[in-house]
Design brief:
- The longest helix is centred in the first third of the chain and has 25 residues.
- The protein is an all-alpha fold.
- It is elongated and about 65 Å long.
- The protein is 67% helix and 0% strand.
Length: 199
């Protein structure tokens, strides 16, 4: 595309192009040239909007982080409704969508990206950390609703669910795990913390 042609929503177009490359070819294929070619825009467009490629990737990850934070309120609001196991199963399937799984691999793959994310205040493994906070917020709400035992160790349950969930979804070369497999894992992790429903 000629550099004089105006592109609407350049950031969104570049992010979508990067996500497609992540899904199709993995983090090692993600370069500034690949992104601009996939977005069908001039090579200099990305660098007119971002200081460098790691800054672009950091903003891509931060967009995903904000999405998780937005979903936390909705998940908390589900406390007391439906099944705790089903709510957690759905939340983990949503959390570990294909793009997020690929983005976690990207963070692991690029030292410069991790540095940028630390500068932005993100510690640990971004996306997994926010996912753990989301699950912990939901479990806390269920504890307050009385469906989770008062003595349940949420600080252990939440990272266990997210860690086990990530292991289920992490193999990008294979089909995504079936809902039944995720539900079985969730049931195993939280079984001892669930209070039986009132008679």
């Amino acid at each position: 595309m000629p550099s004089g042609v105006h592109i609407h929503n350049v950031r969104g177009q570049l992010f979508e192009a990067a996500e497609r490359i992540l899904l199709w070819n993995g983090p090692d294929a993600l370069t500034s040239r690949a992104v601009t070619e996939e977005a069908n825009c001039a090579k200099g467009v990305l660098h007119r909007h971002f200081a460098d490629f790691d800054a672009f990737l950091a903003e891509l990850v931060l967009e995903r982080v904000r999405g998780i934070e937005d979903r936390t309120a909705a998940l908390r609001a589900a406390a007391g409704t439906g099944s705790v196991v089903d709510n957690l199963t759905g939340a983990l399937q949503d959390l570990f969508g294909p793009v997020t799984v690929a983005a976690v691999a990207l963070v692991t793959f690029r030292d410069g990206l991790r540095s940028r994310l630390r500068e932005a205040g993100l510690t640990g493994i971004p996306l997994a950390v926010q996912g753990t906070a989301m699950i912990a917020a939901y479990l806390t709400a269920e504890q307050e609703s009385g469906r989770l035992a008062g003595g349940a160790d949420i600080d252990t349950l939440a990272p266990t669910l997210v860690g086990a969930g990530h292991l289920l979804f992490a193999d990008r070369a294979s089909a995504r795990p079936q809902t039944a497999a995720v539900r079985t894992m969730v049931t195993t992790v939280v079984a001892g913390a669930l209070r039986p429903p009132p008679p």
